[in-house]
Amino acid sequence: MTTPYEQLGGEPAVRALVDRFYDLMDLEPAYAALRALHPTTLDGSRDKLYWFLCGWLGGPAHYTDRFGHPMLRARHLPFSIGVRERDQWMACMRQAMHERGIEEGDAQGLAEAFFKTADWMRNRAGA
């Protein structure tokens, strides 16, 4: 059975998706609230999301090899994340998937999985 990691094209495709995601976040005013949660330079964020997604999608466990269990919610608790930030994260990722040419069916399946995780990251009620 093919993993989502393999379907996307492996490490080069995951890196390209993550890079486009952070490029959009950095450039598009629509993602300003999301961008404000990140450090001035996005290099570390890019690497961590890339490492995480490789394993999460069924590829190499780069993130856990470096940091252990992701503990996503605990790692995101210092940041105020509400519906607005969740929705901006999702819109930014959907746009990145579209711009990277990920097939619609694959993108929809990924978006559904991403939403579950993004919604679980919320730690602030309301928008």
Question: What is the structure about, briefly put?
Answer:
The chain has 127 residues and is an all-alpha fold. It has helices at residues 4-8, 10-27, 32-35, 43-56, 62-67, 72-76, 83-99, 104-120.
Largest sheet: none
> Roughly what percent helix?
55-70%
Structural class: mainly alpha
CATH architecture: Orthogonal Bundle
Summarize model confidence as the mean pLDDT.
94
The CATH class designation is Mainly Alpha
Q: How many DSSP H or I helices?
A: 8
Oligomeric state, counting identical vs distinct chains: single chain
Count of structural domains: 1
Radius of gyration: 14 Å
- Strand elements, count: 0
How would you characterize this protein structure?
The protein has one domain: Globins (Globin-like, Orthogonal Bundle). The chain has helices at 4-8, 10-27, 32-35, 43-56, 62-67, 72-76, 83-99, 104-120. With 127 residues, the chain is mostly helical. Helices cover 68% and strands 0% of the residues. Helix 2 crosses helix 7 and helix 7 (83-99) runs antiparallel to helix 8. The relative contact order is 0.16. The mean pLDDT is 94. The protein has eight helices and no strands.
Question: Which structural traits does this protein have?
Answer:
127 residues, mainly alpha, Globin-like, 0% strand, globular
Task: Give the helices and strands, then pairings.
Elements (H helix, E strand, L loop, with lengths): L3 H5 L1 H18 L4 H4 L7 H14 L5 H6 L4 H5 L6 H17 L4 H17 L7
Helix pairs in contact: 2-4, 2-7, 7-8
